[in-house]
Amino acid sequence: MRIDSIASAGAPARSIGSAAGTVGQGFVEALRESMSSLAALQSKADVASQQVATGDLAHLHAAVIAVQEASLAVELAVAVRNHVVEGVQELLRTQA
């Protein structure tokens, strides 16, 4: 039996592992983008709130919309986090 044939049998496992790493990196990148988007919304709401407090804002409804968008984005992020935590806990319960 040739050793070369045995070494080639491990090649598919390496390609599957690299594909899983790619999927994991895609998730990490999507999470990173979501968090930066959330931070941008919160920053916009902070600026709008400061403008309302100082009287520099021309349209009050723009500030209300910015604050509400940031609030809804935070609520969505918390809900997603809670569902992920529940999913992980369920996986851990099924493995025990």
Layout of strands and helices, then pairs:
Elements: H1 3-9, H2 11-54, H3 60-95
Helix pairs in contact: 2-3
Largest sheet: none
- SSE string, helices as H and strands as E: HHH
Q: Helical element count?
A: 3
Strand content: under 5%
Give the helix/strand class: mainly alpha
Domain count, please report it: 1
The shape is elongated
Question: Kindly state the mean pLDDT as a whole number?
Answer: 83
Task: Work out the helicity level.
Answer: over 70%
Which blocks of ≥5 consecutive residues have pLDDT under 50? none
Find the count of extended strands (DSSP E, 2+ residues).
0
Gyration radius, rounded: 24 Å
Question: What does it look like?
Answer:
- This protein has 96 residues and is mostly helical.
- The protein has one domain (3-95).
- The chain has helices at residues 3-9, 11-54, 60-95.
Structural descriptors:
mainly alpha; 3 helices; 96 residues; 91% helix; single chain
Structure, briefly:
The chain has helices spanning 3-9, 11-54, 60-95.
